[in-house]
């Protein structure tokens, strides 16, 4: 029986009335759900009576001028605070309400007809969030008799009706859905690799430009003091987030201010071209354990020096460079190797992840599957990026609970090369997902980086280290005056 129907009783029989609830009561209920439509006009009338129509008009004109100036003068703060609210309100009332919304759902067979009254029952939009220009997140209450499957079956038709790239639907709570409308792809073309700065003075490890975000600005990656986890299926573009940060920090590598410790357990195929850049390089599990042990020992040594010198935070220099451990295909180190080796690797990795921040020992891991069975130390990575993945559950595993419902449709990113490097990251301020695209790095770009930024170029052998070997770890001790002394002498 419809909730808008009365019941007439005649003798021992009962039937539902075909009359609808009075329009005045429906209007009252609508105003109760949208009190601003009554409050704002009433406030305007009171303001006109108090100060006069010209003063109120000037006030509205001034408010509009402030918004325009804010929009033009400081786009970053406007896009964060004002634009999502204004965009959400505009799209709610122009796209997702009224007869237009009802016609769209009716054409897509997502409405139902009340058999007694003949009234068309339309799912109601409870909330619209347009955090970014390209994605709308709707909270929709289904009509009685519908379920998630009914909506899932019609999402392709709904996407075409809304002229959107794609539509994704998930169940939020009983009778309520989350509908994500991706209106357009903000990255129709590949982005060039990050330019290599001229000098180390131009590099800021807290703001490495590695691509573009969906607002048209640079996508800035913070490596210093952070533990980075990049999740993405095969071919999703994880290598873009491996090489672009190195290109953005290339002069620091060349001048010995940044030392890269690389573990590539895919036989070295991904990183062989950049071998000259690395302070240490391992391509087998045994070598990786040795490298991890030495990296941990380097951290402990730095901590001991900091205690002796009463230093709480290191300044990056030749004697105290930033140490960056990069692990390509983390799963081979934390899940799929020999059990004893995996346990040792997890122990060492957990020690570094929990203690390395103050001593300037950072970690960047790259993995295809982010489950706890594969990456047991997943929660110790405080910066997580999700590229294209194969399962919707991987999005929340990578970015946190509810990330997909807030618009991080990483599982909807096509797996072809045209979409490689596109992903989502959680904004540290608003805690909302932001889409980005990392630059496309070619073999020529890697060769250029190696030629221009390889450290100690003159002292390297022409043939370089042998494949799969762990590069020699220089035994280093720090003197009381802060200089660094190696076995070969003072550096």
Q: How would you describe this protein?
A:
This is FtsK/SpoIIIE domain-containing protein. InterPro entries: FtsK/SpoIIIE/SftA, FtsK_dom, P-loop_NTPase. Residues 216-396 form the FtsK domain. ATP binds at residues 232-239. It comes from Pseudonocardia charpentierae. Helix 2 packs across helix 3, helix 3 packs across helix 4 (75-94) and helix 10 (285-309) runs parallel beside helix 12. The protein is of the alpha+beta class. The protein has 3 domains: 20-73, no CATH class; 75-184, Threonyl-tRNA Synthetase, Chain A, domain 2; 200-490, Rossmann fold (3-Layer(aba) Sandwich). The strands form 5 sheets. It has a 10-stranded mixed sheet with strand order 10-9-18-17-16-11-15-14-12-13. The chain has a 4-stranded antiparallel sheet with strand order 5-6-8-7. The N and C termini lie far apart (85 Å). The chain is built from 14 helices and 21 strands. The relative contact order is 0.11. The protein has helices at 23-33, 36-51, 53-73, 75-94, 98-107, 148-153, 155-161, 240-248, 250-254, 285-309, 331-334, 339-355, 392-399, 443-453, and strands at residues 7-10, 13-16, 112-113, 120-121, 124-132, 135-141, 166-173, 176-182, 208-213, 218-221, 227-231, 258-264, 280-282, 322-328, 361-367, 383-387, 422-426, 433-438, 476-478, 484-486, 489-490. 35% of the residues lie in helices and 22% in strands.
């Amino acid at each position: 029986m419809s909730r808008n129907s009365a019941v007439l009783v005649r003798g021992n029989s009962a039937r539902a009335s075909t009359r609808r609830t009075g329009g005045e009561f429906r209007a009252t209920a609508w105003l109760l759900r949208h009190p601003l439509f009554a409050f704002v006009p009433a406030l305007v009338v009171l303001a006109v009576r108090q100060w006069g129509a010209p003063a109120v008009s000037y006030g509205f004109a001034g408010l509009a001028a402030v918004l325009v100036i804010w929009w033009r003068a400081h786009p970053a703060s406007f896009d964060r605070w004002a634009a999502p609210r204004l965009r959400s309100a505009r799209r709610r009332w122009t796209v997702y309400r009224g007869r237009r919304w009802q016609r769209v759902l009716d054409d897509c067979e997502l409405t139902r007809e009340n058999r007694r009254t003949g009234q068309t029952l339309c799912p109601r939009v409870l909330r619209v969030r347009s955090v970014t220009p390209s994605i709308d997140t709707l909270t929709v209450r289904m009509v009685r008799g519908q379920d998630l499957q009914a909506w899932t079956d019609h999402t392709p038709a709904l996407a075409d009706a809304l002229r959107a790239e794609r539509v994704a639907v998930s169940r939020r709570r009983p009778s309520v859905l989350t509908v994500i409308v991706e209106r357009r792809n903000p990255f129709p073309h590949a982005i060039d690799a990050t330019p290599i700065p001229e000098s180390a003075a131009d590099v800021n490890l807290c703001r490495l430009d590695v691509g573009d975000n969906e607002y048209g600005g640079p996508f800035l990656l913070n490596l210093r003091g952070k533990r980075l986890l990049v999740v993405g299926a095969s071919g999703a573009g994880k290598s873009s987030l491996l090489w672009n940060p190195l290109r953005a920090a290339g002069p620091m590598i060349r001048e010995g201010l940044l030392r890269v410790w690389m573990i590539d357990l895919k036989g070295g195929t991904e990183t062989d071209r950049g071998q000259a850049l690395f302070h240490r390089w391992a391509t087998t599990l045994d070598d990786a354990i040795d490298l991890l042990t030495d990296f941990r020992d380097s951290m402990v040594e730095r901590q001991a020096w900091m205690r002796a010198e009463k230093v709480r935070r290191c300044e990056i220099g030749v004697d105290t460079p930033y140490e960056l451990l990069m692990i390509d295909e983390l799963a081979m180190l934390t899940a799929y190797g020999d059990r004893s080796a995996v346990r040792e690797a997890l122990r060492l990795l957990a020690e570094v992840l929990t203690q390395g921040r103050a001593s300037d020992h950072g970690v960047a891991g790259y993995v295809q599957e982010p489950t706890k069975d594969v990456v047991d130390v997943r929660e110790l990575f405080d910066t997580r990026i999700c590229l294209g993945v194969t399962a919707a559950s991987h999005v929340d595993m990578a970015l946190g609970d509810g990330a997909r419902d807030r618009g991080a449709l990483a599982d909807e990113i096509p797996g072809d090369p045209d979409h490689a490097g596109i992903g989502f990251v959680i904004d540290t301020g608003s805690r909302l997902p932001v889409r980005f695209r990392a630059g496309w790095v070619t073999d020529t770009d890697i060769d250029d980086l190696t030629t221009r930024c390889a450290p100690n170029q003159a002292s390297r052998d022409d043939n370089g280290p042998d494949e799969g070997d762990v590069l020699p770890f220089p035994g280093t001790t720090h003197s009381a005056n802060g200089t660094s002394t190696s076995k070969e002498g003072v550096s």
